Amino acid sequence: MEGSLVAFVYKDLQAATKNFSDKLGGGGFGSVYKAVLRDSSIVAVKKLEGISQGEKQFRSEVSTIGTIQHINLVRLRGFCAEGDSKLLVYDYLPNGSLHSHLFHEKQDNVLNWKTRYHIALGIARGLVYLHEKCRDCIIHCDIKPENILLDADFHPKIADFGLAKLVGRDFSRVLTTMRGTRGYLAPEWLSGVAITAKADVFSFGMMLFELVNGKRNAEQSEDSNYTFFPSSAASVLMMGGDILSLLDSRLNRDASVEEVTKVLKVAYWCIQDEEDSRPSMSLVEQILEGVSDVNMPPIPQSVKNFVDSKEHVVFFTELSSKLSSRGQSNSLNG
User: Fold this and answer.
1) Is there a catalytic annotation at residue 142?
2) What does DSSP assign to residue 2?
3) Which of 87, 119, 188, 332 could disulfide-link to 156, CB 3.0 to 4.6 Å?
4) In the chain, where are the structural domains located?
């Protein structure tokens, strides 16, 4: 035991995962496997790849992650560090990832609007904790539906927080080249500017659009054109159009117009080109809780720049951050 964390032996985890056979998922930093411990409890074991840190530094970083506990964060139960083998052991969450519920085609088990709204609020609360309530601000750096796990009651829990620091220098290289992550990355990732908590705000905003629409923001249609949901939704929101036409069609318009409008406004504020124009996650939390109001956002230049095309989606334009005027950070809540 180190603090509240269990130091596992590699061969025990190998046995618990049946030699790493039941894979739950994977990303740029390793694969996750389902495991059954000797006491019959089910856990998720993440086998990290590309960790160049020594054992001492790894243990130190992991023990920091172990102290971070919040209802909307996946709990780290323990770790294993033996030679080159570095593994993390987490609570197992039976309902899998938000990604698996949002983007499947099946009509059954579709997340209703009330659940989606609560998921958005829970993720916001988890990020407020990471950004503002921990001793040091923890920037997640990889907020996307695959990293939001759902417990038995569909309460959201953020996975993989603290990994950015654990992985170190390689993190941004893996992130910017990893398929499936780019659509959630703030423009400053590619411009070389120092990353702040506002990068997580941007990713959260991109994810809000997907909670509304039930599809990836960038979709290829049958005629091979690409559509970008934040671009197509902008005119409906700005012109006071039929907001529920933007909702996941599987929900059959069964949602509060006021709440969907609020979520879309928050999403556009979160993806402003200039990070100074984006709200803090605590302000986002207040807006979703109904404590603060939210004004109509300016449409980000990067959204305006997107034109449906047969080319693959370009999420970033170098112009976008330069064209966006810093005068747009008037208030979100007037």
Assistant:
1) yes
2) B
3) 119
4) 6-91, 98-329
